[in-house]
């Protein structure tokens, strides 16, 4: 029996000394066991002592289909954000989600998506395309304005954080459950935490070879 390969991820959280203001910032380094950066992780801080104000963007965000892939692969948004799914390809796509957080279905279309999808509760939404099995992407819906996604350097920086207690959530497509930890942001305070999690195997379906006889177009 083959056991799935598990990869260890280390999160290094540093709280830089705050300036004279009453707000702080955090910098989270997301690394694999060899010290390499991990992209597409979403880190967020949920205030525990006060209800955060949530202001969704006035205009919808876009998750495009281009080259028969979703772009971006991971999108982090605040609750109440609307998302459109424009298709930049010549072929049709059929975008759907069966995730509990938000179920929707956009039957075969080309060009601009007809409707914006409202993401009205927090959670992780897995996107797929009925035509192209390899197309997958995620929308991470957050109940806090304090969040960011790691880029190629594996870094997340959050600033303008009022002092207080927060729940740090870290999510990645290969984390089985949202990682959670309590963090205190205190002015003139410096702290370092290291968080390790286990990642599962990459279950993404391999894309059909270009020009193959598979007929996935
Ligand atoms: Cu498609």
Describe this structure in words.
With 217 residues, the protein is mainly beta. It has a domain at 61-142: Cupredoxins -  blue copper proteins (Immunoglobulin-like), CATH 2.60.40.420. 0% of the residues lie in helices and 50% in strands. The protein contains no helices and 18 strands. It has strands at 7-15, 23-31, 42-47, 61-62, 64-66, 69-71, 74-78, 81-84, 93-99, 102-109, 117-119, 123-129, 136-142, 147-149, 155-162, 164-171, 179-185, 191-199. The strands form 5 sheets. Strands 7-13-12-9-10 form a 5-stranded mixed beta sheet, with no helix packed on it. Strand 9 (93-99) and strand 10 form a beta hairpin. The chain is globular and about 55 Å long. 28% of the residues are buried. Mean pLDDT is 81; it is low at 1-6 and 211-217. Bound molecules: copper (II) ion (CU). The site of copper (II) ion (CU) has 6 residues, from loops.
Biggest pleated sheet = 5 strands, mixed
Radius of gyration, whole Å: 19 Å
* Amino- and carboxy-terminal Cα gap: 36 Å
Beta-strand residue fraction: over 45%
Helix fraction? under 10%
Poorly predicted runs: 1-6, 211-217
- Helix and strand content put the structural class at mainly beta
